Amino acid sequence: MLDERKATILRAVVTEYIETAQPVGSGHVASSAEVNVSSATVRNDMAALEAEGYLAQPHTSAGRIPTEKGYRFFVDQLGGPGKLGVNESQQVRTFFSRTHGEMEQMLSDTSRLLSSLTHYAAVVVGPQHEVATIKSVQLVGLSPRLVLAVLVLSSGAIEKHSIELSADADDLIVNAAAVRLSTLIVGQTLASASSIDSHSLDLGESADVAIILRAALAVLGGEHRHDDQVFIGGTSDMVASFDAVRTVSEILRILEQQLVVVSLLEDVLDRGLSVAIGRETGNEALADCSIVVAPYVVDGETAGSIGVLGPTRMHYDQALSAVAVVANRLGRTLSEG
Amino acid sequence: MLDERKATILRAVVTEYIETAQPVGSGHVASSAEVNVSSATVRNDMAALEAEGYLAQPHTSAGRIPTEKGYRFFVDQLGGPGKLGVNESQQVRTFFSRTHGEMEQMLSDTSRLLSSLTHYAAVVVGPQHEVATIKSVQLVGLSPRLVLAVLVLSSGAIEKHSIELSADADDLIVNAAAVRLSTLIVGQTLASASSIDSHSLDLGESADVAIILRAALAVLGGEHRHDDQVFIGGTSDMVASFDAVRTVSEILRILEQQLVVVSLLEDVLDRGLSVAIGRETGNEALADCSIVVAPYVVDGETAGSIGVLGPTRMHYDQALSAVAVVANRLGRTLSEG
DNA sequence: CGCTGGCACTCTCGGGCTTCGACTGCTTAT
DNA sequence: ATAAGCAGTCGAAGCCCGAGAGTGCCAGCG
């Protein structure tokens, strides 16, 4: 629906605007390399593009800036993720060759890597615990009425929950409960463990042990997926792309709410997109922002997602390739462990 | 060295400037309640205060704004931390009555509380692990050559380290090592555990077990205090106090470096201060910021510190009282556990 | 001697005005 | 269809000017 020339012109406007943040006039476009028509012709086409909603004019005698629809077209016909620069891909390679063990540290470092690649804010959402199996469970009495349950998952993640008891429990009882709990849930996933009906196991237990077991299982089931691990880096870089402190403050307020950030990314992925532009993010406060997302795959299963958040006038090609490459490498690195 | 009236005038300038962010003229000061002299007299005194370095003039025909020295005097003679408003202290009370267990969650929530009280960025540095004793240690084999060591500390904190082995180890060996490790370090502090000489325990162990033990002890000693837990909240609030995006970006860059933040707070405390103003923070990028800090005490020992970061024109009295009250309550709450 | 009122001076801020330049849209010629 | 030219629009920048806020200083008063 957009003929060849109009597409070229639109592309030129978008790239120029991304670079300069200034409205782009017909003269600039006409003098650009890919366009071989006069500025008058460009003007006609730009008027058409504006009528179709791809461009907008801040005021009469100014150039044009892309609308969300304009960015969307640009991104879509951009096609594949493109290639990373040599320095960048070198940076990715050395990063992943050096990294090892310690999942949290690694995810946190990954967010730093991604933000340093793109100069936007990077978000890394850790793997869902639901798919990992429980490797070990331990109960540690911290004080007579406070017991800490520590789960080690096959992914290497650790989940801890404190359990408050209504009556004192000595070490013997706690240990007995721990042993019993181990036989019950080790090897299962968190999801299946939390669905164990605590009433089906009353028999054959001493009352004290049963109390602890029931409390432990309740805690497991209780705060489902309450701690997705989210790592956000590079906010200072991203902030520099905006010019109103007000805007910045609103964006930071979003980023402070980890739950919102997670669902933001997942909403985008659920809609089958890898880029959400402006209001497409579904959040009014991010009207001037775009999000680039990719899931990463561990052992054949989609485990989590990573993404960057930047201004709508973002370097989409770079961001897309950086996100794609990092997601890929991250998934592979996590699969080895 | 500052007579009564000059002090009053200085105080009036500072409070007014904190409120309005506008240079304060002699007329305003003269009409303020505490000052009963004419504006001419105020003018004379303000000139003197400027000569002594307490005030500065942006330009000739403008009012005066406080210098760092001016703020310093203001803060010092402010005396005690002052009182919190009723709403605020109510907020603190309900927060700490509701909170329980789960240290990390609690520290993170505390930083949110503190930022919501002050509208500045709040920093909460978790307790040092060095003083806590080891309650339990567990080794979990994730894969043949990867073992995860999980320590539970008496504070309820968890420390995990992954250990990479050069040879495969089966569960039996891992378990044997875990048992031996438990007898070695449970009950000790992290510091003393990490100072165990791994060569003194070769005797009587199977070679495989010894390898794991040595690796585990090495890991313990290795990354000393590498994970102070730092929780930062309310950056979006703080940002709103500034008007240049550039400044904001630099401040955020500081806050992204957790190590820097921790040492920032500790430097201030080490100098015996509870407030650092502008360059007193020791960081050029924070020239327009001030920090208010307080340590918190758990079981009679200084365990960690909390603080807020805001603009130099911060509401010092409110910040001081908020930080003091929260530090106090936090210490008490953590002591119970 | 300290305080005050008065006065002249300085400098920023905002409005109004003009100029400049970057665009556009349209019309006409090829 | 494309190009060229031309008139028109509108913001940005520069300028002037007056208003206002504030200062410093001086002379007089208690």
TrEMBL record, chains A, B:
GO molecular function terms listed in the Swiss-Prot or TrEMBL record: DNA binding
Domain Heat-inducible transcription repressor HrcA C-terminal, first and last residues per copy: 104-318
Keyword annotations: Repressor, Stress response, Transcription, Transcription regulation
Protein's GO biological process: negative regulation of DNA-templated transcription
Protein name per Swiss-Prot or TrEMBL: Unannotated protein
Source species: freshwater metagenome
